Amino acid sequence: MRALLEITLDTATTNKLIKDGAVAATFDRIMGELKPEAAYFFARGGRRSQIIVIDVADEASLPSICEPFWLEFNADIDIRICMNPDELRTGLDRLGR
Fold first, then answer.
1. Rounded Cα gap, residues 32 and 36, in angstroms
2. Could you report the per-residue pLDDT of 64-84, keeping only the tens digit for each?
3. Among 54, 70, 79, 86, which residue's Cβ finds the most Cβ atoms within 10 Å?
């Protein structure tokens, strides 16, 4: 199932990773594991933030999705199940059955 992750990175933690030169490798490793369908980066409330869309196999996948962001970036994460237009149409069609 598709999920939308809204992630806000802790500034102090991320600043240290940037100064140490480790932020790119850390980020690349996490993104390589998640293989996002889409990823967008922006500032929110003065903090580094991102939205990524990923495939979630099942509920038991949540720790492996969220823990790297918590452990490496001390991040705040919101996760929501979401649909594309085709999936929405399929869901709406099921209402009439």
1. 8
2. 999 999 999 999 999 999 999
3. 54
